[in-house]
Design brief:
Layout lengths: L2 H7 L7 E2 H9 L1 H8 L8 H13 L5 E3 L2 E11 L4 E11 L2 E8 L6 H19 L5 E6 L4 E6 L2 H20 L17 H4 L3 H18 L1
Parallel strand pairs: 1-4, 5-6
Antiparallel strand pairs: 2-3, 3-4, 4-5, 6-7
Helix pairs in contact: 2-3, 2-5, 2-6, 5-6
Bound molecules: iron/sulfur cluster.
């Protein structure tokens, strides 16, 4: 089935979840909601570098390198999970796909990256009818690949995250901020204001303490 047919077959486009939303959700549910519900997107150093890296990767045709077919910016979808997206790179070893996702962000997003990569594998399995046992994350800063095995636990996690993201998008409410070290590298920090609720609570608490003391 082609992508256009798949989208036509859906009862409602709202059923579709971008694969990237899973990565955002695992990193921070509020980030996922700000991007996918509030449509807020801010550039920071990581997102700019990421966009440039992805633009360089978007070559029109696949190539064959040392006997391995390589496809760039390959459209992906899953009717079963209601996912749609693109793979940065898919290498084909004797027709077995091996997705490679390029990352410029901090390594603390590593698990979120694994969920995103495994979601790509589940799409490839459904689209091509072959098992995709593993893939790799390529970190541009270190220029190293880290192989990821798509074990049953990771596959189950992808399905759970899809379910939770769908629930989040349907309810349309912003989750509370995580307000931790993740916020330092988040491009949405100025829109999100993650530490404001804590500051307001501290001010309110201070006021109550003053009243008790007087
Ligand atoms: S600033 Fe922090 S709480 Fe807000 S979206 Fe980013 S990571 Fe999440």
């Amino acid at each position: 089935m082609e992508l256009a047919e798949f989208i036509e077959d859906l009862h409602c486009e709202d059923e579709l979840i971008p694969i990237s939303a899973l990565q955002h959700y695992v990193y921070c549910p509020r980030q996922c909601a700000l991007i996918n519900i509030e449509q807020i997107w801010e550039e920071n150093l990581y997102t700019l570098r990421g966009r440039r890296a992805h633009e360089r990767l978007e070559l029109p045709e696949g190539i064959t390198r040392e006997g391995v077919r390589v496809e760039y910016a390959l459209p992906l979808w899953s009717a079963r999970l209601g996912l749609v997206g693109r793979a940065d790179v898919v290498e084909f070893f004797q027709d077995v796909p091996y997705p490679v996702e390029h990352k410029v962000g901090p390594r603390r997003a590593r698990h979120a990256d694994e969920v995103q990569l495994c979601a790509q594998a589940l799409c490839l399995e459904e689209m091509l009818g072959v098992e995709v046992p593993k893939g790799a994350l390529f970190y541009r800063a270190s220029r190293r690949r880290r192989e990821v095995i798509f074990a049953p636990a990771l596959r189950a996690e992808v399905e759970r995250v899809v379910y939770e993201v769908r629930g989040l998008l349907r309810c349309g409410k912003l989750p509370p901020p995580v307000a931790d070290a993740r916020c330092r590298n988040c491009s949405l920090v100025d829109s999100c204001l993650p530490f404001v609720p804590q500051a307001l609570t501290a001010i309110a608490q201070g006021g109550r303490d003053d009243q008790t003391a007087s």
